[in-house]
Amino acid sequence: MTIDKETSDKIAFIAFIIPQFAAAYKMNVQKAYRYLKQYGGLDFLFEHWWTLHTEDTYWSLRSLYNICYQNGGLK
After folding, report:
1. Which of 36, 41, 63 is nearest to 52 (CA)?
2. The dihedral of CA 6, 7, 8, 14: what is its sign?
3. Digits of tens for pLDDT over the chain (75 positions)?
C-alpha cells in the first residue's frame, strides 16, 4: 500500500511542526501534542496544514498558539 504525495507532505509537515512548537514554547513533544490536541491546535493544523506549511515557521507556530489561546490554552 502506498500513500499519495499530498498525504506524505501532510505527514512530513505535521511531524516537523509539532517538535518546533514544543521547542518554541519549551515543552517536550508529548506535552506539545497533548496541548495542541486539547486546545484545538491539532484540528486547526490538520485542516489548514497546506497554508501553514507555506508560511514562515514563526508565523505557523504563532497561528497554532493563537488558536490554542482562543480555545482556553495558556502558556
Report:
1. 63
2. positive
3. 788 999 999 999 999 999 999 999 999 999 999 999 999 999 999 999 999 999 999 999 999 999 999 999 985
User: Residue type at 58?
Assistant: Y
Residue from 6, 51, 70, 5 nearest 17 by CA: 51
Task: Name the region of 40 (left: φ>0; alpha: ψ -120 to 50; beta: rest).
Answer: left
**Within its chain, how far is the Cα of 41 from the centroid?**
6
What does the chain come to in residues?
A: 75
The pTM assigned to this predicted structure is 0.89
Distance between CA atoms of residues 3 and 23, nearest Å: 29
**Can you give the residue ranges of every domain in the chain?**
14-70
